[in-house]
Design a protein that fits this description.
The structure holds 2 protein chains of 2 kinds.
Chain A (H helix, E strand, L loop, with lengths): L1 H36 L7 H6 L4 E9 L6 E9 L4 H14 L15 E6 L4 E6 L2 H4 L5 H18 L5 E6 L27
Parallel strand pairs in A: 4-5
Antiparallel strand pairs in A: 1-2, 3-4
Chain B lengths: L4 H21 L3 E9 L2 E8 L4 E6 L3 E6 L3 E2 L4 E3 L4 E7 L4 E6 L4 E8 L3 E9 L2 H4 L7 E4 L5 E4 L7 E6 L16 H19 L3 E4 L9 H10 L4 E8 L9 E6 L4 H11 L10 H13 L2 H19 L3 E7 L2 H4 L5 E8 L3 H8 L1 H23 L2
Parallel strand pairs in B: 1-5, 13-14, 13-15, 15-18, 16-17
Antiparallel strand pairs in B: 1-2, 2-10, 3-4, 3-11, 4-8, 6-7, 7-8, 9-10, 9-12, 16-18
Helix pairs in contact in B: 3-10, 7-10
Classes of the chains: A alpha+beta, B alpha/beta.
Chain lengths: 194, 375
């Protein structure tokens, strides 16, 4: 009678030890992940850009005066070590506007406050409120501004899957009453035309 | 002072194995059983943990979206006399129940310990077939006992939403025409036309220059049990010569994100009712159940706008519009024309052109109702 009981309790203890080891492993791993996931603010744009002269080609997408599609334009940005810095450079290229007679969908006073890249593939773009104030406030003007940025960013940086806008550091419900702004945007390449 | 790391660790070692054991014992496997009874067939979905579900009668099947768990059958199982077959799409998390009979009604309720969603299907008598409507059920396992029928009633209530209002002007034309005033004027004309010429009831989300939040607009439509929701807007673009009308329905732009958020909050268990994130997701799911119908409504309205207005056809499009997300009915947003185009601003400011737009949208609604009856 005693022997099976002994085996049974030994088994239980063994299983508990296994759980114990398993959870040490899991806890350690989880802590590491949460550390990695915290946002890291990157050093100032210019500082980092001074360090490198190597460039990479990128495409930005801008609305055309002829049709309702976004059209690609090639630009060169500096191959800086941080991804968020490269994203900022692409944004600045969009903000500068077209070199080929396309239109600039971004209100001219718009400033980049900060760019954060989350490990899950979301780029958080914190823009100044001029981005909202200067928009003409129609569905089309919202789509032009939003997807110029979203498509340009996701197209050039495959690790970035979606873009989440912040205005003056805060989330907004919509840009100007139409497209929802409180969640991330996936790219929409169907509105691009060569 | 925060607890010492060692204390925290010991605590985890004692508590966590129990969670682990319980998570094995209560893995979220779903079991599906169909049984035959006199007069009805019973379908039971059993799970060890409560799940959230959205039931939506489609044209030829009943769709049940289930928040978590997985069925033990591979693709489909076959039913009995009333239920033809049941298929499970792991990716869209949608269970589809097909029927052998044409008019099937059902009663659903939930039981606990273990959690079961029970749906009884029976054939409908001739009388019941009429005068019944589709219903979207948004409920967690905590609110049982709802009776639903599969048959859709024909549309009776239309909610028209004039965009913007109050401090929010919307787009403004070069000559100063404000979108909020223009769309209110068109909406009122549309209401008149519909009510004069049909038995449909029309409600506006605002009938003056009031500020209304987008959530309020959606609530109005859902509380009135709207059968059709139409938001009316006027467009603007950086391209000054952009012109023409276009019609939008919702795109589920952030589907993967929604899925992720849903999985994040699944673990909340009893707090689920108060969790606003969950509500948000369910509202998304609500419109997603109507996307097919919304696209038909959009096509119907756009077709009539093209033929009546003779303006540039910009077609039917999809975008993640906030105001369409939570509507539990076919829902579209019509951009009647471009205020940023001086020529169109001139046209839009004329009473007769606004009348034409209203007429076109009305015809589009009728076309949609006809299209819908074909199914």
């Amino acid at each position: 009678m005693k022997r099976p009981f002994f085996l049974f309790s030994a088994g239980i203890i063994f299983i508990l030890i296994l759980f114990f080891l398993f959870f040490i492993f899991v806890i350690n791993k989880k802590e590491k992940i949460s550390e990695e996931r915290t946002f890291q603010q990157k050093p100032a744009l210019q500082q980092e850009m001074m360090k490198t002269e190597e460039t990479i080609k990128v495409l930005i997408f801008l609305p055309s005066p002829e049709d309702e599609f976004l059209h690609p334009e090639e630009r060169k940005i500096l191959k800086t070590p941080s991804l968020s810095n490269q994203v900022k450079q692409v944004l600045l290229e969009i903000f500068k506007g077209s070199e080929k007679g396309n239109l600039n969908p971004i209100p001219p006073q718009t400033q980049i406050r900060e760019v954060y890249i989350h490990k899950d593939g979301t780029a958080y773009l914190d823009l100044s409120s001029d981005f909202v104030k200067g928009n003409a406030g129609g569905s089309s003007s919202e789509i032009e501004a939003i997807y110029s940025i979203v498509n340009s960013i996701t197209f050039n940086f495959p690790n970035i899957k979606r873009v989440h806008f912040l205005i003056d550091g805060m989330e907004r419900e919509t840009l100007k009453g139409h497209l929802r702004f409180d969640r991330s945007f996936l790219p929409n390449y169907s509105i691009i035309k060569e | 002072m925060s607890p010492s790391p060692m204390g925290k660790f010991k605590f985890s070692c004692i508590i966590l194995p129990f969670f682990f054991i319980s998570s094995i014992l209560f893995s979220q496997n779903l079991q599906l059983k169909i049984s035959e009874n006199p007069g009805f067939e019973r379908l039971v979905i059993q799970s060890d943990a409560p799940f959230v579900y959205v039931m939506m009668p489609e044209r030829d099947y009943l769709s049940i979206s289930i928040s978590k768990g997985d069925f033990d059958f591979k693709e489909k199982i076959f039913g009995k006399e009333i239920i033809k077959e049941v298929s499970w799409d792991k990716n869209s998390r949608e269970l589809k129940i097909y029927f052998n009979k044409k008019d099937v009604k059902f009663v659903s309720f939930t039981l606990t310990d273990p959690f079961r969603l029970v749906i009884d299907f029976s054939e409908k008598s001739g009388k019941e077939t009429q005068e019944e409507r589709s219903n979207v059920v948004i409920e967690s396992g905590k609110y049982p006992k709802e009776t639903k029928t599969l048959q859709r009633r024909s549309p009776q209530i239309i909610v028209i939403d004039p965009g913007h209002g109050g401090e929010e002007d919307g787009a403004i034309g070069p000559k100063g025409l404000k979108e909020k005033n223009l769309v209110l004027s068109i909406s009122k004309k549309l209401k008149n036309i519909i009510e004069q010429r049909s038995g449909l009831k029309v409600f506006l989300t605002r009938d003056g220059d009031q500020a209304k939040s987008l959530d309020e607009r959606v609530s109005i439509a859902n509380n009135l049990k709207a059968d059709i929701f139409i938001s009316i807007h006027a467009n603007a673009s950086v391209r000054k010569n952009a012109k023409g009308a276009e019609t939008y329905f919702l795109s589920l732009n952030a589907t993967d994100e929604d899925a992720r958020r849903l999985s994040q909050i699944e673990n909340l268990g009893s707090e689920i009712e108060e969790n606003s994130d969950l509500k948000l997701i369910l509202w998304d799911m609500a419109q997603s159940a109507f996307l097919k119908q919304s696209s038909i409504l959009a096509e119907s309205v756009q077709m009539e706008l093209n033929s009546l207005l003779k303006t540039t056809d910009r077609g039917v499009k999809q975008a993640p519009f906030k105001v369409l997300m939570g509507v539990t009915a076919p829902a579209i947003l019509v951009e009647v024309g471009f205020l940023t185009n001086p020529e169109e601003e001139g046209m839009l400011s004329s009473d007769s052109f606004q009348e034409k737009i209203a007429e076109a949208i009305y015809r589009g609604i009728l076309r949609f109702i006809r299209e819908r009856e074909k199914y």
